[in-house]
Amino acid sequence: MIELLSYDFLRRALVAAVLVGIAAPAVGTFIVQRRLALLGDGIGHIALTGVGLGLLTRSSPTILALVISALGAVAIELLRVRTRTGGDVALALLFYGGLAGGVLFANLSGGSANLNSYLFGSISSVSPGDLWVVAGLAVAVVVILAVFGRELFVLCQDEEVARASGLPVRFLSLLIAVTAALTVVVAMRAVGLLLVSALMVVPVAAAQQLTRGFRATIGVAVVVGVVAAVGGLWVSVDVDIAPGPTIVLLAMAVFLGAVGAGRLIRMRRTGTP
Amino acid sequence: MMATPFSLTGGEVRYDRRPVLRGIDLTVRAGEVVAVMGSNGSGKSTLIRALLGLIPLSAGRAELYGVPPGRFRDWKRIGYVPQRLSIGGGVPATVREVVASGRIARQSRLRPSSAADRRAVDRALSAVGMADRARDPAQELSGGQQQRVLIARALAGEPDAFVMDEPTAGVDARSQETLAGTLRDLVGQGRTVVLVAHELGPLEPLITRSVVLEAGRIVHEGVPPIPQGECALPGHDHVHPHASASEPRLLS
To answer: Where mainly located (chain A) (predicted)?
Structure first.
């Protein structure tokens, strides 16, 4: 591992992996608490249109993915509030539109092969420019969660109580959706848009097998996320396999281990088999 | 003069054009303990949510301490205990975390929790007898204990007025006694309480006024209707004498 760090591209990949490992599970904890675990998937599909547009216009796919996914996140949140019934159909339309738009624009640009690296990730091809964007977004995500965390906790727990506490519910709802969009773009290079949500949900699912509180869940989920991202990158370089799926499968393995460990802990706590 | 905590004038609420509340005039003065009663679907929960401005009125006016809910800023004066079968959220949260979140209306965004916050949370936890469970996951508690946690969350905010939606529903006898004790202390301190209840049980002696709803209208207001004689027998269908003759309905 140490001698691998002499390669610039691997150093960048490692930094990106750590940033993704921190940001995705931290946002994911709030999203899972709000019972919107699939929000990341939806935003990931929409972000693909941004990537396609970037390829087509020969501008930065990362920046356009950022803009389009943030707009998509706002649209999803507005649909969630406005439509009491049929909201899931409206969301589905948005997701398919995003995916189809992305593939079509990428095709038109003649760079369909390029699209694969966004769909399934290519952390070892992160350019210095990309890394700056990813780092900036990851810092933004962490700062947002640090400043608004207490309010978001109340919102994600019970929206009505948030309103009766005088919290700006509409603003906070948009904030968490847009923060999720930023995270999708951070994680896009590491695991790809189709697997982005896995890094937001799986570490949280693993952590809550072991924890009793919300803060503890965020902490353990971030540790699981960093271990899976860095470990997955290392394994993929070592045995020469694709990093994105390796990272996600490693996170799933941690989840399975946590399920077993959680059972043991609870058994010991209650003293019953 | 002290402003009136809650008032609803000519309040009307519709869900999908169907009227759920009609012509509600209700004023709750400071220090009152008001029970909102009525059968399932009579509009009890809707009434208190309209009182708080959580759902829009299709007609009429709501005021919190003399201010319409949309312009009301003093939310720290109000503690809301929603009706929940279980504490929400897909991620575990400790009892202490849930109760501490009740301080939110008193906290500013960039300041960490203060010693005063922690003391208020401690007091709220002991008031409902949950201090020894503070580090346990709230989701693993019984229904009655979860209800006590939700009440403690409202207590932690140290509000002047409480709005509680069915605080006694599905709550075991011991939790009901604890709740009655907590409520007695609040009343002793001159706090205002509006609560929805199916049965008052041990809370009854504390209630200063009860409001009975039927099909979205107030059909009775006054001292709590105490079931007596034949009416107190289990299984008795209680037809309320104030119910309008055109729409006879069971209050059970």
So the answer is: membrane
What are B196's two structure tokens? Answer: 């929805």
Contact call for residues A180 and A14 (beta carbons, < 8 A): no
B104 touches chain A (CB under 8 A): yes
Q: Are A189 and A122 in contact (CB under 8 A)?
A: yes
Of A153, A164, A217, Cβ closest to residue B92: A217
CB pair distance less than 8 Å for A208 and B92: yes
ipTM, 2 dp: 0.90
Q: Which residue in B91, B106, B149, B158 has the most chain A C-beta atoms within 10 A of its own C-beta, making it the best mutation to test that interface?
A: B91
- Answer whether B182's CB lies under 8 Å from B173's CB: no
Print pLDDT tens along chain A (273 aa): 566 678 888 899 999 999 999 999 999 999 999 888 888 899 999 999 999 999 999 888 889 999 999 999 999 888 888 776 556 777 788 889 999 999 999 999 886 777 888 888 888 888 898 899 999 999 999 999 999 999 999 999 999 999 999 999 999 999 999 999 999 998 988 889 988 899 999 999 999 999 999 999 999 999 999 999 999 999 998 899 989 999 999 999 999 999 999 999 888 877 655
Name B127's Cβ contacts closer than 8 Å, sequence gap at least 6. Answer: B152, B155, B182, B185
- Which long-range contacts link B217-223 to residues 24+ away (Cβ below 8 Å)? B217/B21, B217/B22, B217/B23, B217/B24, B217/B244, B218/B24, B218/B25, B218/B26, B219/B243, B219/B244
Residue of A161, A167, A169, A266 best to disrupt the B interface, most CBs of B under 10 A: A161
Q: Which pTM does this prediction carry?
A: 0.89
Q: Which positions in chain B touch A208 (Cβ < 8 Å)?
A: 91-92
Kindly provide the b/e burial profile for residues A101-131, where b requires at least 16 CB atoms within 10 angstroms of the residue's own CB: bbbebbeebebeebbebbbbbbbbebeeebb
